[in-house]
Write a structure and sequence with these properties.
Distance between the termini: 14 Å
Oligomer: single chain
Strand content: under 5%
Number of strands: 0
C-alpha cells in the first residue's frame, strides 16, 4: 500500500502537470494558426507557462517538504 505522504506528493505533482498541460492546450487552441503553427505571441505565452510551471513545482516541493516534516526535523515515516 502506498504511504500517505507518497500519495499526497503524487496527487499534487500530477495535478500540477495536468494544469500545465491544460494551459499549453489552451495556448495552442487560442494562438495556433491555420497551418498548425504557433504565433509569436503564443510562443511567448508558452515560455511563460513553462517558467510558471518551474516556479509552481519549486513552491510545491518546498511546501510539501515543510508540511511533511515532523517538528523535530526528521522526515515522517
Amino acid at each position: 500500500m502506498v504511504e500517505r505522504e507518497s500519495l499526497i506528493e503524487i496527487v499534487v505533482s500530477v495535478g500540477a502537470v495536468f494544469l500545465m498541460l491544460a494551459a499549453m492546450f489552451a495556448i495552442g487552441s487560442s494562438y495556433g494558426a491555420a497551418n498548425s503553427t504557433l504565433s509569436p505571441q503564443g510562443g511567448q505565452m508558452l515560455v511563460w507557462v513553462i517558467v510558471g510551471f518551474i516556479l509552481l513545482m519549486t513552491a510545491v516541493g518546498v511546501a510539501l517538504a515543510y508540511m511533511l516534516n515532523n517538528s523535530d526535523g526528521n522526515v515522517s515515516a
